[in-house]
């Protein structure tokens, strides 16, 4: 297998959702999730602050632009399928409320899904949240089965698609026995009780920046200007292996070890998928049986694996760190926190706490490229940064980070 070839699994290895035991399941049942029709998305989206028509225009422009770039050549701006609307749990005067948050469009070519793109459905979310070559998150639900307490997606009150951040799209369900809402990550398959998750709380700066971008887009539309994208600067690293951790084990090995293994594989000029390397990094990082890793264990695990590596986490100046690492031909790891409380501790410098939330790292991916927007409506000195990542499942994403984005950190690895 060449350095650029990637073995992909059938996703069956990731089809069993983990964590439902935490809901108090006593019986064993397996229920296939189905009925994930998107036919009523537009009707449900009538309350979205960003209407579907405007979201589609932004998605079309971005897909057309990305179709001229490596990894995304199969994208066709004329092949956006019917979107699904994902919701965010927000705190309104002490009460939790669900608001439309993201329009997620599957991208199809000749009837085959070749990727997806997520567009903000509120003015406090960035216009382009992410795009990727993998299956749209709403379609992953139909591929998964639930083991543990039986649950079914029956109606809007019992289940809804939920957006938490660019790396986490999920499905909220209820346990038949306990009627406790459960959040299921549609990428990792890990399930968590909704009570353990904090509401979505964008910072004032995030909101102001996103609103400025949407105002610029609306102004262009009123002037009948064509929406388009261009880059003021960019950088890419070739030769980084893109591995699917599912290939190596029937149990999920963990996104952080897989992301780290691709960086190490690049530095060691590895030509084939290295399952032993993933296993060793999982041990050195202390990754648990559900694939979760403590953030400070990522660089420590890399250095324990081989002391010739110099690894560290960056909690401030993260966008600059990504660009610096890519420009220096060093792929790095970008990770989202599993819970907002983790961000507060990290930003204050207090990360040595004994009892953290269950999901310490929400998800990790390997960053291999970036580009900065050339048409920033917010601040030309701080344009949105679009980061190309390998998602640890063998697919490629582009994640959007603004200068005010919170809840993520960078692991830099020098050889």
Automatic annotation (TrEMBL):
Protein origin, superkingdom: Archaea
InterPro entries for this protein: TAT_signal
Region Disordered: start-end pairs: 199-219
PROSITE patterns: TAT
Protein's name according to its UniProt entry: Peptidase C39-like domain-containing protein
């Amino acid at each position: 297998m060449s350095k650029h070839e990637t073995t992909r699994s059938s996703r069956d290895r990731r089809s069993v959702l983990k964590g439902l035991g935490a809901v108090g399941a006593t019986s064993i049942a397996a229920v296939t999730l189905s009925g994930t029709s998107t036919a009523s998305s537009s009707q449900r989206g009538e309350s979205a602050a960003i209407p579907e028509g405007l979201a589609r225009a932004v998605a079309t422009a971005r897909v057309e632009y990305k179709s001229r770039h490596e990894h995304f050549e199969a994208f066709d701006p004329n092949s956006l399928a019917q979107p699904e609307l994902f919701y965010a749990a927000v705190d309104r005067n002490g009460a939790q409320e669900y608001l439309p948050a993201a329009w997620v469009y599957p991208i199809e070519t000749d009837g085959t899904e070749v990727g997806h793109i997520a567009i903000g459905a509120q003015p406090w979310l960035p216009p382009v949240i992410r795009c990727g070559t993998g299956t749209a998150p709403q379609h992953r639900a139909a591929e998964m089965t639930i083991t543990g307490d039986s649950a079914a997606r029956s109606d809007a009150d019992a289940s809804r698609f939920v957006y938490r951040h660019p790396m986490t799209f999920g499905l909220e369900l209820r346990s038949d026995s306990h009627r406790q809402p459960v959040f299921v990550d549609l990428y990792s398959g890990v399930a968590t009780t909704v009570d353990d998750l904090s509401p979505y709380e964008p910072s004032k700066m995030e909101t102001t920046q996103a609103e400025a971008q949407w105002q610029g887009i609306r102004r262009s539309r009123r002037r009948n200007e064509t929406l388009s994208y261009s880059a003021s600067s960019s950088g890419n690293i070739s030769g980084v292996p893109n591995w699917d951790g599912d290939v190596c084990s029937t149990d999920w090995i963990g996104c952080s070890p897989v992301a780290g293994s691709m960086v190490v594989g690049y530095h060691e000029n590895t030509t084939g998928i290295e399952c032993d390397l993933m296993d060793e990094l999982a041990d050195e990082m202390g990754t648990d049986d559900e694939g979760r890793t403590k953030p400070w264990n990522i660089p420590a695990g890399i250095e324990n694996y081989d002391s010739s590596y110099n690894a560290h986490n960056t909690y401030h100046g993260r966008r600059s760190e990504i660009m610096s690492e890519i420009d220096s031909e060093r792929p790095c790891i970008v990770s989202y926190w599993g819970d907002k409380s983790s961000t507060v501790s990290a930003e204050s410098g207090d990360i040595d706490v004994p009892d953290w939330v269950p999901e310490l790292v929400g998800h990790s991916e390997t960053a291999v490229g970036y580009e900065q927007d050339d048409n920033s409506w917010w601040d030309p000195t701080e344009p949105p940064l679009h980061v190309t990542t390998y998602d640890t499942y063998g697919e490629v994403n582009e994640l959007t980070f603004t200068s005010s984005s919170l809840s993520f950190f960078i692991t830099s690895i020098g050889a």
